[in-house]
Each structure stands twice: as structure tokens, then as C-alpha cells.
Amino acid sequence: MDAALTSQDILRRYAKGDRDFSGLNLNGIKLSGANLSRTDWLDVNLSKAYLNSTVLTFSCLTRANMRGALMVGANLCGANLNQASMSNVNLSNADLHGASLQGATLFGANLSLANLMDTNLIDADMRTVNLSGANLVGACMKGANLRQERAIGDQHEIDAGKKKRSTASLTGANLSGADLRGANLSGADLHKADLRGANLQEATLSGANLSEAKLNNANMQGVFLSEANLSCAILTGAILNNAKLERAILIDADLNGVSLRNAIMADVKASRVQMQGTDLTDVKLTRADLSRANLSGAIMIRANLIEAYLARTNLAKADLTDAILNRAELSSANLVGAILKGATLPDGKVHK
Known about the structure:
Elements (H helix, E strand, L loop, with lengths): L6 H9 L133 E3 L11 E4 L186
Antiparallel strand pairs: 1-2
């Protein structure tokens, strides 16, 4: 019977040229360090298997059950893992360069320091996954789910009812150039992550930790960043038109030259933020804290700054044409050379 197959049986069959192990029940099998490249494992049961440092390059593991497997340092370059069940799998330091995990379930998986360069993660379930220090350069994560979870465990896990808030960890992960369009990263930890040139259009990052993250030249049009922490983040050259940043933290962030046209930034905490030459046309900044911010040369045409806090803010040469500044606090603000034509001033009067 399949259940009685041992690791020696598998290695013996492979040595004889057998490459098809599809449909087998190999629960808990020990194949660490084995070379099993270019093999077929469709619908196989490898749950809780020992596959540390196992070589499975260019293998087909479509719909494989690998829940709880130990695969530290495994080589899965070019492997097909589409729709595989990989909850709680340990793939730390594994090499998945060019692998396809489209639609795979990676709930609670450990991918710390893993190489996921050019990996296909479209629509993958990556809730509570650990991607700390992982290399995701050029990875496609369109529609991937990395949202914050309140409960540890999925429908297959024993502790599914155990209540505890958990987040996807991408601390220091390299996501430069990654395709994250429409991905759900709510509450994810992206502290010091490298997202330079990444495509984050329509992605959800509500409540995410992006402090000290590198987002230079990222495409973030229509991104959801409500209550996200972007303190000390670098976003120079990024595009955030139509972005939602309500109650976001932008303290000491660098947004010089960023395009934020039509963005919603109500109640943001952005003291000391750098926004020189930033395009804030039609932006909603009601009740925003922009104290000591550098907005010199910023384009703020028709910006809504009702009740904004602009104490000691540098607005030199900023274009505030038709901006609304009702009840805004402008004490000690630098307005030298600022354009205020048609702007509604704090006292309700319209500047001529």
C-alpha cells in the first residue's frame, strides 16, 4: 500500500528512472537531502514530511498536501506548486527562484530568508506568513492575501479557535520591482522592506507597518494606506494619485517630488515630513498635522486644509491657488513667495 512506502522505496524507484510519484500517501516521510529533481508529485500527501535540503528543482507538486512539512534549505527552483496546501510549512532559507505557487495556501508558512525571486504568487493565501529577509525581487503577488488575522490557524489546523492577532512578517524583505497589484497586506509588517519600483496599484495596506521602508518610484495609485505607519519611509518619485491615507503616520517621511493628486489624507500625522515640490492638487488634508513640514514649492491647488495644523510649516513658494484653509493653524509658517490667489484663509476671507 502507498502508506507503507518508505524513503528507501522512493529513492530506489528514482534511481531506476521512475519520476512519477503522483497520488502517493507519504505523510511524515523522511527524504531530507535527497536529489529528486524533475519529478511529478501531483496530489501527493507530503504533510509533515522531512524535506530539509531536498532538491526538487523543476518538479511538479500541483495540489500537493505539504502542510507542516520541514523544508529548510530545500531547492525548489522552477518547481510547480500551484494550488498546493502548504500551511505552516517551514521553507526558511529555501530556494524558490522562478517557482510557481499560484493559488497556493501558505497560511502561517515560514519563508524567512527564502529566495523567491521571480516567483509566481498570484492569488496565494499568505496570511501570517513569515517573509522576514526574503528575496522577492520581481515576484508577482497580484491578488495575494497577506492580511492581518485575529486567529492563529486555518480550517485544517487544530488551534483554529485560538484567538490571537497575527500579521504577515516581511521585515527587511526585498520586494523591489514586485507586482503586488490588488494584494491584501492589511496589518502586514513591512518595516525596512525594500519596495523600490514595486507595483502596488489598488493594494490594501491599511494598518500596515511601513516605517523606514523604501518605496522610491513605486506605483501606488489608488492604494489603501489608512492608519498605516510610514514614519521615516522614503517615497521619492512614487505615484500615489487617488491614494487613501486617512489617519496614516508620515512623521519624518520623505515624499519629495511625489504625486498625490486627489489623495485623501484626512487626520494624517505628518510633522517634519519632506514634501518639497510634491503634487498635492485636490488633496484632502483636513485636520492634518503638518507642523514643521517642508512643503516648499509644493503644488497645493484646491487642497482642502480645513483645520490643518501648519505651525512652523515651510510653505515658501508653494502654490495654494484656490486652497481651503478655514480654521487652519498657520502660526510661524513660512509663506514667503507662496501663491494664495483665490485661497480661503483661516478667517474665512478669500485672498485676492
